[in-house]
């Protein structure tokens, strides 16, 4: 905002103005060490300018109205910023409540693919909602062809970890890239089931620098990475 200092400059030899300026500077340094001017500071400057104007050459009333209007605009902008800050905090709190309410539900990452990388461990997890009596995990290429089958042994259901050595069923090394993973299994009593990589129960929520992280399997994922939450 522009303030006309022409009149006050003409009075720089006035002792009272020097004293007032020094007091203002000392006060600002004490209360505002970063020297950031707000609407109250500009109002103080305007009043000081009016107080020490030259009586024989008073300030133009139009200029006073302009500066007053600019002060009102500055105050309005300041209030808008405060309202936006409060809204941001409320939205953040709402997102956190949403994350907490997701505990106990299922969360999906939106795909069932892993990336096969050279000389890296290709460990993945699959959630089984029922106990396993028989079954198999199928690893498929981009064309949907099964390249590797991992036999399932009888065991309790839950989040189970698997490691793929990167070879197909014939022992040939597969090229790097994306592969989808799903599983078919039976509990030996109630029937057959299917499941896939990328969908897990949401066990807990932790907050890191204000961001909600949901535990799915043995990993924590930000809420933005989860594509679907369902019962």
CA radius of gyration: 34 Å
Report strand order across the widest sheet. Answer: 11-10-9-1-12
Order of helices and strands: HHHHEEEEEEEEEEEE
Shape: elongated
- Overall number of strands: 12
Tally of discrete structural domains: 2
Going by helix content, strand content and strand pairing, the class is alpha+beta
Global mean pLDDT: 79
Low-confidence stretches: 1-29
- Please give the CATH architecture of the largest domain: Sandwich
User: Termini, distance in Å?
Assistant: 56 Å
Overall helicity? 25-40%
If you had to describe this structure to a student in words, what would you say it looks like?
This protein has 231 residues and is of the alpha+beta class. It folds into two domains: 94 residues, no CATH class; 125 residues, Sandwich (Immunoglobulin-like). Helices cover 32% and strands 32% of the residues. The protein is built from four helices and twelve strands; from the N terminus they run ααααββββββββββββ. The protein has a five-stranded antiparallel β-sheet with strand order 11-10-9-1-12. The chain is elongated and about 100 Å long. The two termini are 56 Å apart. The N terminus is likely disordered.
Summarize the model shown.
This protein has four helices and twelve strands. The protein is an alpha+beta fold.
Task: For the structure shown, list the relevant keywords.
32% strand, disordered N terminus, 4 helices, elongated, 32% helix, Immunoglobulin-like, 231 residues, 5-stranded antiparallel β-sheet, alpha+beta
